[in-house]
Each structure stands twice: as structure tokens, then as C-alpha cells.
Amino acid sequence: MPAPTVLVDGGNGKVNANAFGNVGRRYVEVTAGFERRLVKDNDQADRNHDRDRDRDRYFLDAVIRHELGHIHNRDLDVTLAVTAVWWTFLALVVGAFGLSLTEYAVGGGSGLRQLSLQLGLLTGMVYASRNCFLQSREFHADRFAASCPTPGGGASAGAFDGVLGELSASQHRSAPDGSAWPFGTHPSLTRRRAALSRPAVADEFTRWEVALIGCLLAFSVNLLLGLSFQLELMAIRFGVMPLSDVELGPLYVWLSLPLLLLVGPMIALGVRYSVVARGGVEASGRLLAARLVKLAGCLWAGLCCGSLALPGPLVHSDGSTEALLWRSHTASAALALAVMAVAVVGLGALVALGCDALRMRRGPSTALLATYGALLAVVAFPGALPSSVAPLLRTAVLGVPVLAGLAVLARRRDARRPVDRGDAPAGKEVGSVSVMSSPMGLPLLLLCHLVTLGMACWALVSVGRLLRDFAPTSVLYLVAAVGLAFHTACIGGAALAAHDGMFRRRARAATGCLAAAALAALVQLTVEGQMSQWLFLILPGTTAGVVLACEASAAAVYDVRHGARNRPTDRPRRAAASRPPSHRRR
Fold first, then answer.
1. Is residue 114 over pLDDT 80?
2. How far is residue 267's CA from residue 376's CA, in Å, rounded to a whole number?
3. Which of 400, 378, 399 is nearest to 389 (CA)?
């Protein structure tokens, strides 16, 4: 690999490095904070100076090798291409909205403006998908840095894990780690350390990524299928289609074939990495089953959100051509999407377990999983298949998992190798646990619990209404309802957090979701002309009160789960002897 040009940022006191550049021009930027770690004052040298110096030197070496890994893996070119696609999408959304406000828009621009608002709602999801892809490149750069020998010789995987642990400790001291969200360009340090010990963790999908894939899939399929009529008009204009074949409501399901052939293998391979990361066929089935249930649930939630953002043929039934296989056999569109999510994740995992039971190599198993994923996605849309081929493909979709299940039963052993529990194995940050709730009386605590329960019921009713109708009255109403549901989910996650850092992250996420929902409701009421002066003052105050009440309720459940009230805390308390005699309890 050609040596890149090294630049030093003298005005940045942080300990950090960055790789950047275009094709043929590679640079590594090092901040001046490394100088404080490498250059020591001789007057302050002590007996631990040599040990600290060697540790600091390897710390610098590990960070630089990580940046060299980005250059070696050509991540700079990939990042440039992905970023260009993101800005192109954003420019198209802004351009379409601007065109809808001009006199050149057809029909006053109402249809184009509505599409622009829907695409604007999708902008955050596209940005999150871009960052999720960029996060995956960090794992491969870590693997490159860990495979290089240490300056003193020997393997460096354990030493590089120590560097990540040191970064994690300093990060927990300075600021909580929020990179687990899909809007960060770097994954969490916990997951990066897990990927060093289990490489399959680097390639498996997180629950956020699965939900984003489902949302983009449903939105894109509804958008493509909604263009069937325009495609028919174009065919008539160019003379390709005779007038005798014209339909009033055409639905060309084959328009979604390119998208299905891409998303199907992607999900199947992501499920395969989840199976491998948890030990495969010889591991505990409970841990893998819990992971698959979470993936299926997140995929279903993403499909529902995408269909809510742009309702279309995927969820609407007109009695003629059904876009989704299970839509004609279920009473509601939400149930049809749930069947699709369970079928994709469950059957894909069964085929992956069969490949592991037969001990297939990575290349053949990857080809088999990718082919089966594409086949499974296409079969789920019956209108995209010719009538003569559809029965054969459906038989193959059901036959391959049956054979895989037989292979799993034949290969299953009584002795199971130990598998680390959780998404992050050895080296994961446990975190500290302390009392999170402030001392409050029982009536006030019950009031907080009632507020939290009321918000949860309100969120369930709103989401149920959306899933039943699949046609929100406006985009802002959709944002308000989804934000309310996410607030309830984040508050429940905070109550079930494992340590303080996780609790604070989820509590902040719940606050942001409820704030977004309140802002959307405020704008919607203003547009409808229902916003009065008093309501404008009451809504922010009520939102703040709900935030405080829900956090207090979650903190109380957190304390009960961890038994923190029975443990001594670091909060200073006045002793009884220091109180005046008049305040002593007799």
C-alpha cells in the first residue's frame, strides 16, 4: 500500500485521527493531542514512565493502523460514492418541492408537493441507512489494525481490544456513548470489541438496520407500483401497447423485481451472520430464537412505517391483482406484513442453520443463501411471476427449508459449545448501577406511573388506528403518532436498561421522540387553524411534564429491577447525630 501523506492538526487538542482524500490522493490527519501522550517532560518522569510511553506509542500505532485500514480497504472511495448518492437524493427532494411551488407544476403542484413531503419524511431514514453502511466499514478497519503485528512483535488482536477498552473508559468518563444509534458514522465501541472476538458480528444487521431496510422496501415498492398507470400511458404514447389492452387500474408488480432481487439476498445473508455469531446449529436455541424474534419484529415495524409513509398497492386490496401473497388470505394489511416478516426471517434462518449443519464453506453457503433470499422475496409477490413458473418456485421455497430442517435434526448434538450471551461478548462494558430516581412520595410516584400508563395506552391506540387504516390524514399526523410510539418504546427500554449509561441514552431518546411528536402536532394544529393562544402555551408545558413523569416512572422501575435502594449510594447523607435534637425522631 502506498504510504499516505500525514498531516498534523496543531489546533486540535483531542486524541484523534482521520483518513480522507480522493482517488490517488490519500491523507491521514493526526491531531496535536497525541503529542501530549507521546512527549513527556523529563522533570516529571517516574518509574512508570517507560511503561506509559510504550502504551502511548502502541495507542498511536493502533489508531494510525485503523486509518490505514480504511485506505487499504478503499473505504474512502466507497464513502465518497455513498455520500454523493445521499446528496443527490437530497437535491432531488428539494428540487421537486421547489418545482411544486412554481407555475410549471402540473395541476397546481399539489401532487408533486405531496410526494416531496413524503420523500422528505423518508430523508432521515435514507440518511440513517447511509450511516449504517458507513458503520460497517469501521469493523473491517478494526480487523485490519488487529491483524498487524505490534511494534514489539506478536499478535495485536488483544492489544487492540485494550485500546478500544481504553477509549470506552475515557468516553464513559467524558460523555455517554451515543453511537449505537443509526445516525452516527461510527458504531458503538461495545459492538466493535465484540466484532474482534466474533467476526460475524461485524456483518450481521442490527435491529435498526433491519427496520430501515423494511421501511425503504415498503416505501419503494408502493412508489414503483403506483407508477403503473403512468407507465401504461407512456406505452400507449410510444405505440408499444394497443388500446385494446388498456386497463383503468393497472398494477405491474414486475416493476419491483430489481428491488426485490437486491433486498431478498441482503436480508437472508444478514440473518445468516446472526446465526453464525450465536454459535450456529450447536449453540443454545433460546438465544438465537430471541434474536430472530427481534429481527422479525423490527422488519415488520419497518414495513409498516414504509407503508404508512406512502400507502399503496402493497397494503391496499382492490379485488383484482394482489401485490403481496398473503394480502388476500389475511383480514388486515398489518397482519399480511407480519406474515411476510416472519416468513423471511424464519425460513432464512432455517436454511442458514441447514448450511451450518452440513458444514458448507462460506462461498457455497453465501451463494445458496443469496439465491434463496431472492427466491423468497420474489415468491412473496405473486404478480411478478409467470403463471407457469410460480408453482415450481413456491415448491422450491418450501422444500429447501424442509431439507435444511432435516439436516439440523440429524446434526444436532447434545453437547453444546459455550456461547457468550448478548450482542457483545468478552470485553463488553457492564457499566455502573446507582439510584436513578429522586426521593419522592408514594402519591407522586403513583401519579407518574399513571401518566406513563396513559401515554402508553394513547400510543397503542394511535398506532392501532394507523395500522388499521394505513392512510394517515397528513404527514405531520404520522410523525406525531410514530414519535409518540417511539417515546413509549424508549421509556420501556430505559426501565429495562442494564446500567446507568444505557438508561440515560434511552431516556434522552424518549425525550427527543416526544419533542418531535409535539412539534409535529403543533404545526398540524396551526395549519388546521385550531391553534389558540392558550393551547400554544399549554402544549409545551404539558409535554415537559409528561417527559419528567415518564422518566421518573422509568427510573423507579430501574431501581426496583437492580435493587439499588438496598445498596449504599454515593450521595452524601446527613447522619442522624448531626441533626438538631428537635428534628430527631423519638
1. no
2. 11
3. 378
Over 159-215, what HEC string results?
HHHHHHHHHHHHHHHHCCCCCCCCCCCCCCHHHHHHHHHCCHHHHCCCHHHHHHHHH
Distance CA 451, CA 488 (A): 11
Q: What is the C-alpha radius of gyration for the chain, rounded to an integer number of angstroms?
A: 28
Q: Which of 75, 247, 60 is nearest to 159 (CA)?
A: 60
Query: With contact defined as beta carbons under 8 Å apart, do 518 and 539 qualify?
Result: yes
Cell numbers for 219: 416505501
Task: Name the 3-class secondary structure at 383.
Answer: helix
Distance CA 309, CA 479 (A): 9
Q: Give me the residue label for grid cell 456461547.
A: 419
Contact 451, 550 (CB under 8 A): yes
Report the alpha-carbon angle 92-299-469, nearest 5.
75
From the list 81, 33, 79, 80, the residue with the least C-alpha distance to 59 is 33
Report the 10 Å Cβ neighbour count for 6: 12
What contacts 43, CB < 8 A, 6 or more positions away? none
Report the C-alpha gap between 390 and 172 in whole angstroms.
Answer: 55
Residues 6+ apart with CB under 8 A from 453: none
Four-CA torsion 168, 170, 176, 177, nearest 10 degrees = -30
Cell numbers found for residue 272: 445468516
* Host H or E run for residue 41: none
**Which cell goes with 227?**
407508477
Q: How far apart are CA 484 and CA 463, in angstroms?
A: 9
Q: What is the share, in percent, of the chain residues with pLDDT greater than 90?
A: 10
CB neighbours of 188 closer than 8 A, spacing ≥ 6? 177, 179, 180
Q: Taking 80 as the threshold, does the pLDDT of residue 425 lie above it?
A: no
d(CA 118, CA 114): 6
Give, as one character, the DSSP assignment of residue 280: G
Instruction: Judge whether 480 and 521 are in contact, CB under 8 Å.
Output: yes
Q: Span 494-508, mean pLDDT?
A: 87
Residue 197: all three cell numbers together: 472476538
Distance CA 429, CA 142 (A): 18
Alpha-carbon distance 86 to 80, whole Å? 10
Least confident of 3-12, 154-163, 258-267, 450-459: 154-163
pLDDT value, residue 528: 77
Question: What burial class does residue 544 get, using C-beta atoms within 10 Å of its C-beta: 0-12 exposed, 13-18 middle, 19+ buried?
Answer: middle
Give the cell for residue 33: 493531542
